[in-house]
Predict the structure.
Amino acid sequence: MTLKPTIEFVNHASVLVQHDGIGVLSDPWFFGSVFHQGWSLLHETPDEEVRDLLKRTTHIWLSHEHPDHFSPPFFMKFRDEILAQGIVILFQTTDDGRVTEFLRGKGFSVREIPEAETLALAPDFKLQIYKSDLYDSALLMEVAGQKIFNLNDCPLHEQKDLDDFVARYGTCDLLLTQFSYAAWKGGRDRADWRRRAAGSKLTVMKKQIAALQPKVCLPFASFVYFSNTLNAYMNDEVNSPQKVLAAFEREKTPLLFMKPAEVQELTALKPDQQSVAWWQERFEAVSELPLTEFEEHFEVADLRRSYQLYQQRIFRQNSKSIMWLANKLLPLKPFGVTHVRLLDQQKTVRIEMLGDLQESSEFPDVEMHSASLDFLFKNDFGLDTLFVNGCFEEAFEDGFSRFAKCFAVGNLNAMGLSVRFSLLFRLEVIRLLLQKMKTVRNNMHGSAKNRGD
């Protein structure tokens, strides 16, 4: 039994908090590439270290379904150890229950936690779930009187949202939050957009710290690199530990970068320059790390077959009539037509959500490898994966917006929602989707303006 509460940094967004016989491990992704060969870890955790870690773990908390937080290969590889230890998986209550169903189907013990519920794992170890955006969640822990807010990827950055959060949950002793951009900031010549995105992450950190008033902030959930030949250029402006520390040089709240397997007492957290140097060395050597590339190619005929199966799946879950009306009546013109240039074949295809897929000679909206388009057709979360891995380029102004509006229905279905009349009563979902598209469009236009285009 741990006498004093401790936190151990493991990797990326994964930490182990221990006290009172309880060990809560967050978001274990320790090996392999994710987001369809788009991201890799700056450092992978050896298997023997994982097995030792699981001996000290009683619960595993998953923040959301993204594969750098919920890693099915991890659960399959270490299934026997997790079951033997009697480890319970903690996850937010969702509309579709897909993650819970998957894990239970593999024999794991899962406990879903409603947002308003306080779960006491031990007399001096309590936690709550805060649900954010479309699918993210944060873990709020109170351990031996220490309040820990693990925000991971939650987009908690608007002042009103922060004020509401503080009014509901108060302030904290330790804040864990993301410190660099983690999605497409595209265009090889749009480094200005990536610089703005990196700067924006630091601004968000400062706003979170000002509102939540932690005694210490632990930057994490950004120890990755874009690891595909099509997206590796986006590593050029990511925030390294030194960049982050330089931006916070005049701030009062200390920043705590921890290296893998580093353990500290929660009541005596202290920054260690050796840990900063350990990570900085890996950020600076990113150009030497291996890159993946798509090996499988899909001809237009193959893509047409995949698209037909995609449509069958979409129209089983959604009303084709409502989608048609939305396309005709709404100013946004969702579920319309988009053109995609296949980089590996130098061909362009025309895709009509309510029609078919055909080869075309028209100018494309976006460019990507045929493997990326096939992946999108075969997975409801395909658009989300593509946006995060950034293995595509916008070829024409507002091209990505047109492309996204065509396929956003898959994202809704992946969240357990359908395009039916009842969706009109989920205005918060519609608002969030529109806001995401607007943000991307504004960033793209800002980059073009800065280039003088």
In short: Residues 42 and 285 are 9 Å apart (CA to CA). The longest strand covers residues 125-132.
